[in-house]
Structure formats: structure tokens, C-alpha cells
Amino acid sequence: MLSTMDYKILKAIILLHLSAVCLGEGILPPGPLNGVVGGTAKFITTLTPPAKPFISVSWTFKKVPIITSSNTNVTEPGLANRITLDRATGSLELRNLVLQDSGEYTVSIIPDGGLQTQGSTTLNVYALINGATISSPAATLIEDKSFTNLTCDASGSISTREWMKDGQPLQPGGRVSFSMDNRTVYIEPVQSANHGSYQCRVGNPVSSMTAVYNLTVNFGPYNISINGPAAAPPGRRVILQCTADSVPPATFSWMFNGNETHTNNSLYTIDRMEEVNTGNYTCTARNQVTKLENSTAWSLRASCTAPCWSFSGLVISALSLRWTLQM
After folding, report:
1. Residue 180 in 3-state DSSP?
2. Is residue 288 included in any domain, yes or no?
3. What are phi and psi of 208, to 5 degrees?
4. What order of strands is seen across the sheet that includes strand 41-43?
5. Is residue 314 domain-resident?
6. What is the pLDDT of residue 296?
7. Residue 253: count of CB within 10 angstroms of its CB
């Protein structure tokens, strides 16, 4: 003879076959549900506790039963200490998550006097991102001669890798290409534009981390120029400055009217402008790594015509004579 509870279960099964299963749209919030290793996932149904308890609540993971509750709870042994069922709403809590908990979870509920309802969702479990780094082969890189690559790695569950250079998204094209998984950037060969700071953002839905790498590309010297006055009056202090785009910084040497001077500096200083200082100044920039050099010239003249030098000489002579007479 059937008990009252057995009768209710049998009745529910008969109704199920006669009327088909209600999928219970909205019984679980739309997924996926994201969790972190060691954390907790809560599969919360949208059901409110009924006036009469559910006849049966059953959860499966990848179609394998993990907990079933009717008269008593039957739990998959490996989950006994990690799983809790809310019998009133059918909600489930899964603790101490591991990566293997990722997958599809389905709940089936048989209410007292109603049709079976079901709902499914997916749980994705991720390990926190940690120890993000960018590595590159140790080498001295020279523009248009060297090849290199940058590799982005981290521990944890990596879902995405995003590359940037100097704060701007790094795009493939020209001499820059990416591996299929975005893990490695290839630069073949390097150019001066590839010199700078590279960032790799590694992430998943529960964590992210950014690694930074400064890539040195030796290039130049380019764009060499001299800054200073084109003309100066007698007696004026004059400074000519030579600049160039270069990594590492260039060394400089000067020539005056075709003759090499002893100035080994980016600055050429004339303490007192005289007629003998007028002429052509040439600055040569050299890169000790690329072994390249580049030169530019600058013309310096007096800011007055030739007689002004004579006038200056007369003034100096007159002052000297006056000082002699006063002695």
C-alpha cells in the first residue's frame, strides 16, 4: 500500500507524462555565474517558498545528480562538506570552489500539486590572476637590424590579454604581429617607433593584472640641429647648442671654418664675440651603439658691418690711452 508521500510523487510523475515538463523560465537568473577558486557560488532561484513544501528538489552537474531532496537529502559523497540546499526555494550553495566545478548545473523541482519545473545555468570558476610579467630576449636592439618579441605571462586563469604601448592600444600591422593567443608580440625588425613602454593587461571575469616592460631600441642620431643666434654684437657672450634624436644619447664634436675644435660637448661657448669668431660652425653627433653619425652647420656673423669692429678697437684704444695719461 502506497504512503501519502509516495502517492504524491506518483501523481506528479503521471502529471509530468500527461502534460509535459514546464521548463520554468526565470527559475534561475540568466548566466553564466562566475566564481573564484576557494570562493562560494550561490545558485539562487526566483521561487518563493510555497504554502506546501516541494515534493522533490534535485540538482545535477553535467547531468550527474549531486543532491536530491525528498523525504531525505541524498548528496554526492565528494560534495558532502561543500554543498547546502535551501529546501524552501530550491537554491543551492557550493563552497570551496575548484576549477573542476565549472560546467552546467540544472535544478528540477516537483511542487505539491503542480508540474515539474526546471532551470539551468553555467558556472565558470577562475583562479585569480597573479604574477603578471612581460619577458623579452636579452639583446642589444639596433634599428632596422634587430628582431625581438615580448611575451606576456601570469599564473591563474587567463581569459584575455590586452597589449598597449605608451598608454595606447597596440595594434598589429607593419612590422608588429601577434601570436594566435595574443601571448606574444613580434617586432621584425625593430624601429625607433618601437622604443618605449609596453603594457600587457591579463584578465578574467574575476580579476586582472597589468605588467609593464620598457623596450630599448638603439637608433639615430636623427634630426640634428644647432640652436643659437645667427648674429651677435662685439663683446657679447654666445652659446650654440647642438641637439639630436638618439638612443643612447649622442656624443658631439665641433668644427669651426673646417677646423676641428677641442669642444666635446653639445654646447659651444664663445665668451666674447670678436671678428675672428664669425664663420661656419659644424656639429657632428655620433651614436656609440649604432655607429652612425650625422652633421649640420650653422653660420654666425656680426650684427653690425665691418666698421663696427674698427670702432670697437678705437674705443678700446682711447680708453687705454686715457688710462695711460692718468698714470
Report:
1. coil
2. yes
3. -155, 160
4. 41-43, 92-94, 83-85
5. no
6. 97
7. 18
